[in-house]
């Protein structure tokens, strides 16, 4: 019988479309994660992923298993939440897939130090899916990018924002003048994620580019960050990335700040959504501590 850990690992890889990124989010090594996925595939008796140069994608069987796995994980988390008590309880918190993958571990560390909880059980999904889980009380809270303007059935507050940089080849970077503008890149393809994977983020970036009167031609980029950076290094295009991802240095890739005239317009708001039935609501002091901790993590 598959373990809950295997199902959670499988769901994370499915959400990110990349074993490398999922391993970072889960704080495990890639070989260890790959072994868990392979063990699950052996148990199911079918391949769950198609492996390719742009990452991994679900097979037809994988999509069926993913649908069931998400429900099982949600039920397990709900059970843990319902029977948990005092300092022994876990908080079930969702994180938007496009945010810094290190936030989940840092938030868990700080919340445990503050004795808000004993552990954080994280989930990763697009922002809109996380908000649905918060409304259903399947999550205590969710940290999302590009929070919606209209809020129903949950509390939403802005806790910060994060800056974007541009990843481009070193060759292209050397050609830019000191006072360059976005339109100097108009002839280069912009590598963008599929809108269906990050709908709220894609809408935010589209609005930001419209406001900056920047309309480059676009090409769908791979989900795997290392493959994306390899494409950038080879001159296949450039990409907007969160500032936090500049820690992943890659040969031939230069990260550069956006021009000052448009930088503010590309700062992605980060929101905190809290379920009205969340255990965080049991104490005003505990809730305030949680919000302040989330603000610190979002501020870096």
UniProtKB/TrEMBL annotation:
UniProt keywords, alphabetically: DNA-binding, Transcription, Transcription regulation
Xref: PROSITE patterns: HTH_LYSR (PS50931)
Gene Ontology cellular component annotations, sorted alphabetically: protein-DNA complex
GO biological process: regulation of DNA-templated transcription
Pfam families: HTH_1 (PF00126), LysR_substrate (PF03466)
HTH lysR-type domain location: 2-59
One GO MF term: DNA-binding transcription factor activity
Family named by the database record: Belongs to the LysR transcriptional regulatory family.
Record protein name field: Probable transcriptional regulator
Species whose genome carries this gene: Pseudomonas aeruginosa (strain ATCC 15692 / DSM 22644 / CIP 104116 / JCM 14847 / LMG 12228 / 1C / PRS 101 / PAO1)
